[in-house]
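By way of example, what follows is a protein record of this kind.
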Amino acid sequence: YLRALSAVALRGEAGRAGFALLDEVSGIQRAVSAGANPGKQLLVDQMLSKCHRELGTVHLGDSIG
């Protein structure tokens, strides 16, 4: 997603949303490394919720690439 964005787009809303998601993933990785043991489904639900908030809802037929 981020690799496909132009330099201008990276500085815009789409870039900020992508970097916010990367920050969220990094935070979860740090928490798990520090000993947090959240359930797998909780992590999946949290990340999907964050993706929907940052990138919008995906509709059938849409693709990531």
